């Protein structure tokens, strides 16, 4: 039954690949930018899924050490590629908003959906509260690091925000490298495959997985350039702010495939794995993707700071605090999931009207 579900998901992603040639054709024909934006977004979803799948398969071949490093490098590659083209286009608010959106999306929307759908046929689901607490603490520390420049700007009125952001980015990146050392070397026994034998063994050959990863990465780069190129027109035409597009739209697009994996794991009653996906992705965004984007912006000659909108700061803090409260007892049910989803929707409404 589980194999059939996975195959049906793969078939669905394969079917969605049709949007790749369609989006390229529409872009070459200079079609309506809104249509181009929607089709490019739909094209990125399956590509992100295959990038994730190929990364997982290669990780199984390479073992815990190199496999973990690969997952760390390509785990959020889709968001990184989209953000790179957004920086190139000068859409800094979209980039920073997508970072916020990825964090609150994983901690509220995806964790909420996992708990909701996983708990529909069960009175409760259990998970390792201690392990979840370690991941949540790392995320909280990373989030505090991200919002410090915003507090310095909005509360203390400090200057030199680019230099401040650069310094904090360096600390975040060093912390991330130390976390890799922890998980891949000194405490790698804590991060072995927790699934059954069928899930832990590779189903693709190493060469095939590497080829899929390469092709998907190139395709995501093409689609990201098309997507970013239509953002400004979509923003003006539909009356959507770059903040809303980044926090809600771009964040969901970049994480869609990973989100589906977390929810599927919860439905199979594998809550530890489900929550690891959600929390791990948020932590990687905060500790790796955000600082890397700051350094990339400097190399491109267009420095980006980490000063987030005031409500972005509130949203990040609230999301982490509430999700930690719900996950502290090591148990979840569908109602707790619904509460997280409701909080995400309320935040989305506020972002829409800002």
Could you walk me through the main structural features you see in this protein, from its secondary elements to its overall organization?
This protein is 81% helix and 1% strand. With 354 residues, it is an all-alpha fold. It has one domain: A middle domain of Talin 1. The chain has a two-stranded antiparallel sheet with strand order 1-2. α5 runs parallel beside α11 and α6 (129-154) runs antiparallel to α7 (161-186). The radius of gyration is 20 Å and the shape is globular. 47% of the residues are buried.
Which keywords apply here?
354 residues; mainly alpha; A middle domain of Talin 1; two-stranded antiparallel sheet; 14 helices; globular; disordered N terminus
Structural class category = mainly alpha
Mean pLDDT reading: 84
Specify the CATH architecture. Up-down Bundle
Number of strands: 2
Strand order, main sheet: write it out. 1-2
How much helix, percentage-wise, in residues?
Answer: over 70%
Task: Present the secondary structure layout.
Layout: H1 2-16, H2 19-28, H3 33-74, H4 77-88, H5 92-119, E1 125-126, H6 129-154, H7 161-186, H8 197-200, H9 206-229, H10 231-238, H11 242-267, H12 271-299, H13 310-327, E2 331-332, H14 334-353
Antiparallel strand pairs: 1-2
Helix pairs in contact: 1-3, 2-3, 2-9, 3-7, 3-9, 3-11, 4-5, 4-9, 4-12, 5-11, 5-12, 5-13, 5-14, 6-7, 6-12, 6-13, 7-12, 11-12, 13-14
Summarize the structure.
This protein is an all-alpha fold.
